């Protein structure tokens, strides 16, 4: 909210381009250090408040970070401080905890290895001071609860604490001449309980010699517990999960189907979209990403490998194979090539916070769609136009199939996405904005800064506001280095309320603010 | 270290285990909480055990659930109702935990405790707790609070009552859909405790808010509220306030809401009364029967009979029957299946003429449906039609349907029809059965699927029960016994099983003369599995037949089997011999 307020008071007209500064890095690589495959980050997600950040990696781990700069203050105090020092503060995070979310598995029926790699993480509603999140690999979604637990230390007991920690039986009750055998940790043989039947009468005042255990130590530690496992519902690889605004359901999407789950019920889900053709040879299009509308519980959007976005209305019918709206860019005439269809494939879609706009990322561009206008995107941003001549090489080394994510700022004024050489780009998407910044995921993000004051080549129609800009011409960066296709910045997330971006470069998590 | 007398040892263990590392042991202790309380005495339970439990709120959910349950019946252990309020703090903390089932149980227990509390205690302790929960920081507390108002409200003084109503109305507008859902779920219960005037002034606006909620899941629950509130309101108010809501719900944009209306329709009709039902709900129901969404039609089709029962036959024939006709050829097999399972019930409502003229063609088309579930659903309710139109009319189309189902590719379908055979037999009578179905019953004994053979053997027994041993001896036994010579041992085994099932029904005489020789013969089988099954069957025959037969025929056979080279055969033979010894001993 705070972020929005600031914007609301800003004068009309495009906001000034942001000056991005390095904030933090986690898991920075030292010179010459080999990156372990399992450490490569594969998912990043802020929670709704922006006070928590989660990353998932190829090793199936989920790492949680918490914001430190606001942590100790109440909300009102936070607001006061904000008014006093509006500029000095930016989100800072610290490592909170991590846990192993998924393990590698083998599906014996299908002779299929299931990687532990975390494909997506989604935060759920915080309750009672505990954090909840969903994490998924290719097949299985898990619901986690992360909570501070008191470390129990029992100081007073009725009986001697077990002398031996183990399973051996031992003798307790040191004053007794005929010790009753009991299991370690206090479990006693059944017969001892016999006279705990209701017939056994206790003296009316109770037995004074008995006392309750006393817990002394009040230290706490964070415990992550898997509360539910939603499995066996996907034949293909899960590419997205998304929570509904009703707080009780979520969807999971694989290449051909989208399923609807209730968070509390893990043994059944409902198939709501199925694009699998009767004959797999007729398959021309797969689902690449899906997301619920942020406020309308009945709407969800999914993108396809053909570059279209479909909006479906869960109210219309139980099976939503027919879409309510289809967003597609009219095919440019004449310029079809072998790669046209491949690069049209949408790798990620995100709703803006207000739910009116959808941001999509395909291989070469970011597109912003207004859900009230299905004739074409309202804005198109070229991410790395200089690669166009190299599509053949990119196809050869499979890079063309890289799935870049995209994100919107909380105020909806800017969008960001990743590229190669650990670069990412931020574009202003408010009307009239020419902001197009290139940053490098390093401690010096502006190192490769090539802020070509690019003039947007506007389309004639001012209504559609199609913007093409930031097109850099050379395949070589400002420093004259050739671009590196192996270091790609696929995953990034924008803080929900402030101008702060978290992005993953291999195993390192870089955070920037403006 | 404490010193404990030996007799107290188990209880001491139990108490210590409240904090054990092992969750099973903690659970065990919590389940015996009443024992611990009795051992501590009422005063120490209040002063020590309850505060101890209140702090124990970060345990595993299973333990918390058990604790919530135990505390609901804990009043006797804290010293009776005058001390009931001490139970509120631990239950209050349980009302806030994240796990829904724990919270629900805690609310349930709080209601139990609250229902027994004295009025002044409710005002002094329960209502403040309720207000704390309703104003809770986390939505979990607010969700729980909704379920407690109906306990607190009746005891509250006037000013507090006003406040409680205000709080509830805030909960109905909470930011969190979870809270609004809980408010919608509990609105009926709360409304039932509210005085007439306030019901209209305060509750109806809340209800109206909920019926217009953006979240489908909230509106869904408000549908149930229609029925609950409708019963509380005066008839004219109900028509004025509830009926329009039902009608608009029946045309809601969301199919899930319409589905709820279809499912709840009967209760809704009851709430608004017969006259408005006829004028307003019949059109609404007809719309639901013709809904675009198959799920809604399924729900609506399943209520056809229940709904028609409220109407007179004329209205039903005029309005509902045309829809039923359409539904019988619906594109969704599940709709047809739902219709098939209830349509039989319409016959008595429509009367014989309308049934034969209008309903019978629908029955018959459903009996020929390509989807086996539809056919099965018709057949399972056959007794109801039979009463109205008689078997002669039906049998022509019935038999082909049965035969087709009996030979269905899916064994589960075959299994289902076998289970209806005894019902069919009783409806059709001996004569019809002999001609047509007898052969089928024998055929199932030779099915490729074990479950079918198993069910078929059972079916043979049930037929014998239905038509009596005399009939069975003529029509079943010879055919069954014939099959003992089947070359495949698995089929021979089925026959042995059928024999053991038939024997008690047939009685001692027939068993000795017809069944026993076959079994004895089978003891010479070359397959050990048959032989040890013979031993098992013989064991089951021992109590049925005469002692002399046991001595003369069964025991020698078993003795022989007990010397068989196969270890399993020896085992079961020995077991049978042993049980025969025991029987002899008991009878002597």
Automatic annotation (TrEMBL), chain A:
Q: Which Gene3D superfamilies does this entry report, sorted A to Z?
A: YVTN repeat-like/Quinoprotein amine dehydrogenase (2.130.10.10)
Q: Which domain of life is it from?
A: Eukaryota
Q: Which UniProt keywords apply?
A: Repeat, WD repeat
UniProt key word Protein biosynthesis = no
Cleavable signal peptide: none
Q: Does the record bear Chaperone in its keywords?
A: no
Report the coiled-coil segments. none
> What Pfam family does this protein match (any one)?
WD40
Q: Which family does it belong to?
A: Belongs to the phosphatase 2A regulatory subunit B family.
What role does it play?
The B regulatory subunit may modulate substrate selectivity and catalytic activity, and may also direct the localization of the catalytic enzyme to a particular subcellular compartment.
Could you tell me what this protein is called? Answer: Serine/threonine-protein phosphatase 2A 55 kDa regulatory subunit B
Q: Give the species this sequence originates from.
A: Hibiscus sabdariffa (roselle)
UniProtKB/TrEMBL annotation, chain B:
> Keyword set for this entry?
Repeat
Query: Which parts of the sequence belong to the Phosphatase PP2A regulatory subunit A/Splicing factor 3B subunit 1-like HEAT repeat domain?
Result: 276-351
Q: Does the keyword Repeat apply?
A: yes
Q: Does the keyword Repeat apply?
A: yes
Q: Which InterPro entries match?
A: ARM-like, ARM-type_fold, HEAT, HEAT_type_2, PP2A/SF3B1-like_HEAT, PP2A_Regulatory_Subunit_A
Pfam families recorded: HEAT, PPP2R1A-like_HEAT
Query: Repeat HEAT: residue ranges?
Result: 10-48, 164-200, 203-241, 242-280, 281-319, 320-358, 359-397, 398-436, 476-514, 515-553, 554-588
**Top-level taxon in the UniProt lineage:** Eukaryota
The family annotation for this protein states: Belongs to the phosphatase 2A regulatory subunit A family.
Q: By what name is this protein known? A: Phosphatase PP2A regulatory subunit A/Splicing factor 3B subunit 1-like HEAT repeat domain-containing protein
